[in-house]
Specification:
Number of strands: 2
Order of helices and strands: HHHEHEHHH
Radius of gyration: 18 Å
Strand content: under 5%
Length: 135
């Protein structure tokens, strides 16, 4: 006997997912609608979305040395990607980033001279995130 999912089942499944998973999924949807599928996308918007993804998925790792030696320096060597394999699979963010890279390359080719450097920045950021997630 097949059972249709009820509202309670759907609520339980959404509660069981990690909050980071929900955030990354939402950011992925924004990438698809605002960059990949957009008719006239903005390179600034693409960069903003990608920076948000980077900030949410790669948090600074708290260390005892960093806590005791807080000299105000912004050392990025302690940054670590906190995205798990399960989150990558469930959100499909890797596939979304691959589509974003292709879209950024396409938009860069057709962009004006003023927008080309901005698309290059978005492209570099998308490729960097994709590399981090693959490692």
């Amino acid at each position: 006997i097949s059972r249709n999912p009820t509202m309670k089942d759907q609520a339980l499944s959404s509660k069981s997912s990690h909050p980071l998973e929900q955030t990354i999924s939402s950011i992925g949807k924004s990438l698809l609608t605002d960059v990949v599928d957009a008719i006239d996308p903005s390179p600034e918007r693409a960069t903003d979305i990608l920076l948000t993804l980077q900030n949410e998925s790669c948090k600074q790792k708290p260390t005892a040395a960093a806590a005791s030696n807080n000299n105000g320096s912004n050392d990025t060597n302690d940054n670590t990607c906190i995205v798990t394999i399960a989150i990558l699979e469930n959100t499909r963010i890797g596939k979304t980033l691959t589509k974003t890279v292709k879209a950024c390359k396409r938009h860069k080719r057709t962009a004006s001279q003023e927008e080309t450097p901005q698309w290059e920045k978005a492209l570099e950021l998308a490729e960097t995130l994709l590399t981090i997630y693959k490692s």
